[in-house]
Design goal:
globular, mainly alpha, 266 residues, 0% strand, 80% helix
Length: 266
C-alpha cells in the first residue's frame, strides 16, 4: 500500500477519533478546567499552520498569487456559509459554572426545555460533514509534503478536542448516556479517515490543483480560528488570565513549528 495513503489513514484516525477520546478525558475528568487553555492552544496551532505552512507551500507552486488569494477568499466565504447551514462548527461554546454547553443560538432559546433529540442529530450531521472535510484537507497536505501533512493533522487534532468536548456535553444532556454519546461522536470522528482516503484519490487525480486545495485548507483553519475560537477568548479577563491565553496561543504555534522541524529532520 502507498506510504502516503498509510500515513493519511494513521493521521486522520488519530485526529478524528483520537480527538474524541481526548475530549472525553478532558470533559469528563479532572482536566475539565483546562478547556479554555485548549481553545487558545487550538487557535495558535491553526493560525500557525495556515500562515507558516499551508500558504507558503501553496505560494511556492507555479500558481500565481492573483489566483490563490481569491481562492482563499472564496474558501472563507464557503466555510462561513457551511457554518450558517450548521454543517461546520458545533459545540465550541463552553460555559463555566453550572451552565451546560450550548451549540448555537437556537439552542440558547430555552435552556430549561427538555433536550431535543433532533438537536443531537443536527450536531452529529454537522460533525460528520466537518470531520470528512478535515480528512480531505489533511490528505491534501500529505500529498503536498509529508511534513505538512503531520502539521495539518496536529492542528486538526488540537481544534477538534474543544469542538468534541462541546458535542459530548450536549449529547450527554440529550440522552444522559455517556458511553452512547462517546460512541456516536467517535463514529462521526471516524469519517475523518474516510475523508482522508477520498481526499488522497481526489488530489492524486487533480495534482495540478494541489495549491488550490492547500489555499482552501488554509481558509478552513483561519475560519475556525478567527470565527469560532478567538471570539470565545475575547471576553474580559484579568491580566493573569489574559497572559495565560497568550502563553497557550504561543504554545500552540510552537507545537506546530516543533512538529514541522522534527518531521523535517527525519
Amino acid at each position: 500500500m502507498n506510504m502516503t495513503l498509510l500515513a493519511i489513514l494513521a493521521a486522520t484516525l488519530l485526529a478524528g477519533v483520537g480527538s474524541v477520546w481526548l475530549a472525553a478525558l478532558l470533559g469528563f475528568g479532572i482536566l475539565a478546567r483546562y478547556t479554555q487553555h485548549m481553545l487558545s492552544l487550538a487557535a495558535g496551532a491553526l493560525l500557525a499552520t495556515a500562515f507558516m505552512h499551508l500558504l507558503p507551500e501553496a505560494f511556492e507552486s507555479q500558481v500565481s498569487a492573483d489566483q490563490l488569494f481569491p481562492t482563499l477568499l472564496v474558501g472563507l466565504i464557503f466555510f462561513f456559509l457551511l457554518d450558517k447551514a450548521e454543517l461546520w462548527h458545533h459545540g465550541h461554546e463552553h460555559h463555566h459554572g453550572h451552565d451546560h454547553a450550548h451549540v448555537h443560538a437556537h439552542d440558547h432559546a430555552d435552556s430549561q426545555a427538555p433536550a431535543r433529540p433532533g438537536g443531537s442529530w443536527a450536531i452529529l450531521t454537522g460533525d460528520s460533514v466537518h470531520c470528512f472535510g478535515d480528512g480531505v484537507l489533511i490528505a491534501s497536505a500529505f500529498v503536498a509534503d509529508m511534513r505538512l501533512g503531520v502539521v495539518a493533522a496536529l492542528a486538526v487534532l488540537m481544534h477538534e478536542v474543544p469542538h468534541h468536548m462541546g458535542d459530548l456535553a450536549v449529547l450527554r444532556q440529550a440522552s444522559d448516556n455517556r458511553r452512547m454519546a462517546l460512541v456516536k461522536v467517535s463514529l462521526a470522528g471516524g469519517l475523518t479517515a474516510l475523508g482522508g482516503v477520498v481526499g488522497f484519490f481526489l488530489v492524486a487525480q487533480l495534482e495540478a490543483y494541489l495549491p488550490y486545495f492547500l489555499a482552501i485548507a488554509s481558509s478552513s483553519f483561519l475560519y475556525v480560528a478567527l470565527a469560532d475560537l478567538i471570539p470565545q477568548l475575547q471576553k474580559k479577563l484579568s491580566a493573569r488570565e489574559t497572559l495565560a491565553q497568550i502563553v497557550w496561543l504561543a504554545v500552540g504555534m510552537g507545537m506546530v513549528t516543533l512538529a514541522s522541524s522534527l518531521t523535517h529532520s527525519h
